């Protein structure tokens, strides 16, 4: 793995095939539940200048990462509810890179997104824990990725997603000695 590849994927790429057991599912749920606290701990003492530091050359800033995780997980929560209430729906992708450039990302304090992430994850984890084995097999079609995603895999994917971006932050903090 090249240095740039490691900076992009500090915990590796998501592997749906490696995510299959009930133990994996339970760990993913715990990761989603704990992510807001871990993000807050990671960035709690950072200055505005540090929050505006990209995690890698050409990458998003820490501030953009925090706002992105909230945007992404809001979309995931809605996609899950759509999959639970509609038969094999096609979800609507969004341009996450363009969302990261919007003015609210530049001007909203990260504390607001951390609060949103905490509240969203409480509600989302409550929903996830209520799902039975049949509901976990419900799926949606992602036209951008051109694939069907079942809810069990989705839970693993978003646990990975949160940990992936948290690692961007924590690895930058280590490299910079903050």
Task: Please tell me about this protein's structure.
There is one protein chain. With 178 residues, the protein is mainly α. It has a single domain (45-176), classed as dinb family like domain (Four Helix Bundle (Hemerythrin (Met), subunit A), Up-down Bundle), CATH 1.20.120. Helix content is 65%, strand content 4%. It has 9 helices and 2 strands. It has helices at residues 3-8, 22-43, 48-51, 62-85, 96-99, 103-107, 110-130, 133-136, 151-176, and strands spanning 139-142, 147-150. The protein has a two-stranded antiparallel sheet with strand order 1-2. The longest helix is centred in the C-terminal third of the chain and has 26 residues, at 151-176. The model has no long low-confidence stretch (mean pLDDT 96).
Quick structural summary:
With 178 residues, the protein is mainly alpha-helical.
List keywords for this structure.
mainly alpha, single chain, Four Helix Bundle (Hemerythrin (Met), subunit A), two-stranded antiparallel sheet, 178 residues
């Amino acid at each position: 793995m090249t240095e740039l590849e490691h900076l992009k994927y500090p915990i590796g790429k998501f592997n749906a095939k490696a995510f299959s057991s009930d133990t994996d599912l339970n760990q993913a749920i715990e990761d989603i539940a704990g992510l807001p606290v871990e993000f807050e701990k990671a960035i709690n003492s950072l200055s505005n200048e540090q929050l505006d530091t990209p995690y890698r050359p050409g990458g998003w800033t820490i501030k953009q990462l925090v706002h992105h995780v909230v945007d992404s997980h809001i979309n995931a929560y809605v996609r899950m509810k759509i999959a639970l209430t509609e038969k094999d729906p096609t979800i609507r992708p969004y341009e996450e890179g363009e969302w990261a450039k919007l003015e609210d990302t530049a001007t909203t304090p990260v504390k607001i997104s951390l609060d949103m992430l905490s509240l969203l994850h409480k509600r989302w984890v409550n929903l996830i824990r209520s799902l039975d084995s049949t509901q976990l097999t419900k799926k949606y079609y992602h036209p951008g990725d051109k694939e069907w995603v079942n809810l069990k895999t989705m839970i693993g994917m978003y646990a990975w997603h949160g940990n992936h971006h948290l690692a961007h932050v924590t690895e930058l903090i280590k490299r910079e000695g903050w």
